[in-house]
Design goal:
The protein is mainly alpha-helical. The protein has helices at 13-22, 39-48, 61-68, 72-84, 122-125, 129-137, 156-164, 177-200, 205-216; strands spanning 2-4, 28-32, 51-55, 97-98, 104-105, 112-113, 167-168. The protein starts with a strand and ends with a helix. The structure holds iron/sulfur cluster. Iron/sulfur cluster binds at residues 88-90, 107, 109-110, 147-150.
Amino acid sequence: MVSIYRRRAISKKEEILTLCRKHSDCIFVAFTNATLIDEEFAKQVREVGNLSFSISVEGTEESTDARRGKGTYQKVMKAMDILKKGGCIAGGKHYMHINANGDVEPCVFIHYSNANIKDMDLLDTLKQPIFREYQKNQPFHDNLLRPCPLLDNSGKLAEMVHKCGAHSTDLLHPEDVDSLCAKCQKISKEWGETADKLWETDPRRKEVEDKIQDFRC
Ligand code: SF4
């Protein structure tokens, strides 16, 4: 993995894409405030497939703008929306995570697995039951503002983990999936109500729902 820390790295978009294409056996991570990410660049990033971003944001709009200049927070949110357009990418769809113990997890935030890299080939880990559950259920919601099986779709992660018998891979604090999902239930419900209202008037809604309909047929 190659990390790109250069200040305003994304101002060199073409050079970065050229690097990614040239070294297609590497994964690049650019540390950026993301303000220069637009639709066209996001499209090219999807095409090269080996570039991801660590996006800097202070937390609230107030604290971000105080440090980085007025309007920065809204630009960062817009860039995140553009990059998020594909919904959940985890479970081997476009991405997965391997922890320090070698457990192959659907996502860096989801610590449940049926496979360890020490026991099988990487390609075989992609066929593990929890990855199959992810792929069978993606997208987890027609509303692109609710992509996550843990945070945006209450109980979905627990349902998949129970179905496939994945175990907790949290190295320090193994956690029962029902207990984890219960902790997220309130915020998931609240965000779900807000996200559904926002989605009603989202200009992408019709196109996305048509695509999902075709995908499921
Ligand atoms: S939507 Fe959730 S599970 Fe999917 S990649 Fe994002 S954090 Fe991970």
